[in-house]
Write a structure and sequence with these properties.
Elements lengths: L7 H19 L4 H9 L5 H4 L1 H24 L1 H12 L2 H7 L3 H30 L4 H30 L4 H19 L5 H10 L3 H5 L5 H11 L1 H30 L4 H29 L2 H20 L3 H29 L5 H30 L1 H22 L9
Length: 409
Amino acid sequence: MLGLRQNLAQFLLLVAVNALVGGTLGQERTVLPLLASQTFHLGLYTSALTYILAFGLSKAAMNYFAGTLSDRYGRKPVLVAGWLVAIPIPLMLIFGPTWAWIVAANVLLGTSQGLTWSTTVIMKMDLVGPRQRGLAMGLNEAAGYLGVAVTALATGYLASAYGLRPAPFLLGAAYIALGLGLSVLRVRETHHHARAEASQHVNAHDQAHAGLTTKEIFTLTSFKDRSLSSVSQAGMVNNLNDGLAWGLFPVLFAGAGLSLHQIGILAAVYPAVWGAGQLFTGAASDRWGRKWFITAGMLVQAVGLAVVAGGDTFAIWLVAAVLLGLGTAMVYPTLLAAIGDVAHPTWRARSVGIYRLWRDGGFAVGALLSGLIADLYGIPAAIGAVAALTALSGLVVALRMRGNDHTTT
């Protein structure tokens, strides 16, 4: 049966699993930019951001394959495979003698995140059905990014107390072991729920598109469908600015004389507000619709980035981190729910994977764009440019996305 109440135990288990997925990513948020500059002495921002480029490209590719593989082989095998890929990552981050090892670890991290996070999204959509999709995505993304935030804060403390290596990455190793164990022993397959929903679909537009090939789904999601393509570009720009925040914010803060503890707080506040906010924004978009939540969220993000670019104190940057987290909370679950609204259940997993391909490709674009601008003109200029791009993305959604692609309106 479809519905949150009917599948509550399995849903909550998947929420916990995604918190561990987020924690595995969060082990890097505070420490790795400082590791690049202080341990490996990488001077150019573009060089230091190679790990985000590697992460973004591998995660984007795996997002695409995760949807296709989960349709073909089931959701659970893909989830377990993602955890297996993650096993070597903490060891490579701890013992890597050169920067190439760190980049290679981030290829594995992106691969793992693409398989695990994509699959938890798809499985929750399978379980809840159409009417609570925004709530489901809000809970999923809240768990993941609160996991990022708590771990970023914890690793900042561990790094200040015990050094940049190995202590912060031991936490990631524990998350991977627990996530793998839960996924193997407790998580159940959900693909049959999607088939049940597909059998109940009566929307004429969806039925006309029920038998699309993967190539046709890619074209529809990326370019042809006004709503799906609007969501895809907004997701890409959202993660473009997140890649900027991940790679350059700690360097900017350290250059301004902030302590490692203060940098850890700022690195945690942004995903913490982002994570907690999604507990409310996902469900609110179920009630009020997706389009204007996405537009407003992109504009709030742009304001937050502009405040970072113009700021020079911990207090100002703390306000900016809250704004950036709030804007992202408005956007993140709503984008995923919007994909679920439009895509037919028989190819929803593939459409989610294609959307996440574009979205997480934003990490790679953000690493290259912000690194090049920072090398040429400084970090504030890079942040200002991305702020303008984020505002433009919000306007594209306002002008292009249909306003009636919402299951409960």
